[in-house]
Amino acid sequence: MSEQTTAPKAEKEPEEQAPARARDLTSWLPTLVDSIAAVVLALVVGAVLIVFSTPRVIESLSYVFSYPLDFFEYALVAVWDGYRALFTGSMGSLGAWERTLERAAPLVCAGLGVSLAFRSGLFNIGAQGQMLLGALVAGYIGFSWDLPVGLHALVALAGALVAGGLWGAMAGVLKARTGAHEVITTIMLNYVGRFVMLYFLGKEALQRPDSDNLLSPPPADSARFPELGSLHIGVLLAVLAALAVWWLLERSTLGFEMRAVGANPDASRTAGMSVAKVYVLAMTLAGVLAGLAATMQVLGKGDSLTDQVAGTVGFDAITVALLGRATPLGTVLAGLLFGALSAGGLAMQGAAGVPPELAQVLQALIVLFVAAPALVRGIFRIRGKGEGSGVMATGWGA
Amino acid sequence: MTDTTVTRTPEVPVRERADVRRQVRLVVTLGLALALLLWFAVVIDDPTVSYVLGERVTREFQPQPFNGAIVSWAAVAVTGAALALAAVNRFPKGWLGGLLMVLVGLSFYLAFLVWAYADQTGSFSAAIANPIPGTIRVATPLVLGALAGCLCERAGVINIAIEGQFLAGAFFSSIFASVAYSSLVFIPVALCAPFGMLGGVLAGVLIAALLGLFALRYQVNQVVLGVVLTAFASGLTAFLLGQIPGDRKAELNDPEILQEIRIPGLADIPVLGEALFNQTILVYLMYASVALVTFLLFQTRWGLRVRAVGEHPKAADTVGIKVNRVRWQAVLLGGVFAGLGGAYYTVGSTGAFDRDVSAGTGFIALAAVIMGRWHPVGAAFAAVFFGFMLNLKTQLGFVDKLPTDLLGAAPYLATLIAVAGFVGRVRPPAADGVPYVKS
């Protein structure tokens, strides 16, 4: 977009300058403080919601003037119970950690895909559709082919990556060839992907014999990811994917081209880069990563195929990528946080009767406050000049 | 190669490559359409199909049989003629070309319907029904959402939160209408549902205020913001819905729905009248809103300012326009329309609010904004196109010739083809999504 009107933060790309390495370490601190303050603020707003969703507290409001202590006591107990359940359910025990990691792994993978596209100047809303296609192929290979252990999982994994990649590539090719806006095409491909899934689920070959619902058989044991302890190997794959994306973006020529195109496609074209190639490759890789996320659900958790197999992971991935500021490390951390909130949200419902939707509200609030450091700093009176919020594309792109 | 041609026979005009590509694309598209139409015409065994002028078969509207073969072959003729024109590069340009394309599209649609409804083997014979009433209904929230998007983005604020505004609007209009009904003291029954629309507007403006606060005051990246506000509204409405105890549902989330109002005179026009002028007040508000927003943006001083701060805020600031104030106004006004659009999903159609009741249509409205090139009228037409396709999907659900799931994907595939083939590269307002910081 036009440079003269861009806020000053836009030109601050820390990784562009080599001597900035030393400064990077110190610039971490305010970001970390901001992020923690944002989480605290979100929890405070969440506490208000918990208070007003507890019947006992509402009842005590009716006599708050005669026994004010009741109200405060009940409110405190409700908030304490809720957040303790949130914490113990996500990080309080080994099992809780496993649940958190298992929920975080697909979020991280799909989030990496969104981040990668973002850095190339593309707003990929299509992780959901790419995941569905990946899940479809992984699931089909998983339950219908007969292959030896190990090889079976590998083939199913490869199939999912290819399917997700092809679905992503379609948006990239459309953008590169015709200029069709990727926001429209990825939204539409999400819907199309869902109907493709439904169409195949209606076929004899994918129908579970004993069920009337649109439900496939679960993947065969030979196609499942091997487990380390009780955690499947997909978590490791997510970490490897994050490393690969980091290397790609920061250390490879293609990654440099991606970042250049993301920063300014016109300048990159003038410099001799193929913008079309970058768009197609970025969307393909984003799709591959979403396909990887899908395998976590199908081959990792062992879910049967339905049209809900991707859950809301594809959409949450956008928030994860944005919270992680479209960097690999940030995406991993954001994915962990969201995995923890999701695992803890269920525990919160079970133990304290707090509706699980609260976790979704908390997620949104955290991202909102992380993105608005000025607000958080104002409320907590943190001094110092924070960085701006966004590193990503400021506009629609052209 | 062109060089040699030029030097040898200079009188042959050299055509630009883009022009040639346009022709090739046109020929390929029309050729495919013609092939399909021929197939439609040939495979029909019994070309007798029936139609009704109403939306469904009623006592007033009885199915009328007619010979579909005429329609099929007429469509083949029209498309063939267009293909011949394109092949010799005589396809008309400008509005005449547009008209011809519309004609081809219409004949394709009719021939497709004839093919789909002919040779039915189902237990009851389905009739081709009037698609316009359903289209208008489905398109109403989409148009309103797209108008909200247009207003915001023309002022330079990206609005991806239309879906969030829909959800908040839908929830609070249901609550307002239900509460108004259960506390009859204040409001007559007939006004409960319109009162609900007021709640929708307030909720839409509330989300718009959050959008404005974070985008303009705190300069949060607006793409991030829109996604987050949508997640927030979705989570919050689901959370609040869970707070309504079962025994108080009738009191809080079971609104009266808007009644159709027949406009005398206009509603008596055959085919169209009933469809366009026997609708709820929300639909009439939608018509008025398109005109209003177009007028505001392109005929008033305020609209000029809105477009100025969206294209070049610095220049606007230089001549004394308060950039952020104008942006705030546009964003909040957009919230009114998006909130009304949200009201459609409860008081305007089914009544009670359900979790994620708008089912992603806010994003379709966003697509309509882009497809309509950030112009209210263009966006409204794009939204009506979506409404038409979504309604077609519902109407063809009875036809056993088409697999339901692939049919379900058709509106979205059609959009992909339309965007990739005909809309192509679009140019957003120059300062869209860029916060303005006075230097």
TrEMBL record, chain A:
<dbReference type="InterPro" id="IPR001851">
    <property type="entry name" value="ABC_transp_permease"/>
</dbReference>
<dbReference type="Pfam" id="PF02653">
    <property type="entry name" value="BPD_transp_2"/>
</dbReference>
<feature type="region of interest" description="Disordered">
    <location>
        <begin position="1"/>
        <end position="21"/>
    </location>
</feature>
<keyword id="KW-0472">Membrane</keyword>
<feature type="transmembrane region" description="Helical">
    <location>
        <begin position="331"/>
        <end position="352"/>
    </location>
</feature>
<dbReference type="GO" id="GO:0022857">
    <property type="term" value="F:transmembrane transporter activity"/>
</dbReference>
<dbReference type="GO" id="GO:0005886">
    <property type="term" value="C:plasma membrane"/>
</dbReference>
<keyword id="KW-0812">Transmembrane</keyword>
<keyword id="KW-1133">Transmembrane helix</keyword>
<feature type="transmembrane region" description="Helical">
    <location>
        <begin position="231"/>
        <end position="249"/>
    </location>
</feature>
<feature type="transmembrane region" description="Helical">
    <location>
        <begin position="125"/>
        <end position="143"/>
    </location>
</feature>
<protein>
    <submittedName>
        <fullName>ABC transporter permease</fullName>
    </submittedName>
</protein>
<feature type="transmembrane region" description="Helical">
    <location>
        <begin position="183"/>
        <end position="202"/>
    </location>
</feature>
<feature type="transmembrane region" description="Helical">
    <location>
        <begin position="278"/>
        <end position="299"/>
    </location>
</feature>
<feature type="transmembrane region" description="Helical">
    <location>
        <begin position="35"/>
        <end position="54"/>
    </location>
</feature>
<keyword id="KW-1003">Cell membrane</keyword>
<feature type="transmembrane region" description="Helical">
    <location>
        <begin position="305"/>
        <end position="324"/>
    </location>
</feature>
<feature type="transmembrane region" description="Helical">
    <location>
        <begin position="149"/>
        <end position="171"/>
    </location>
</feature>
<feature type="transmembrane region" description="Helical">
    <location>
        <begin position="358"/>
        <end position="376"/>
    </location>
</feature>
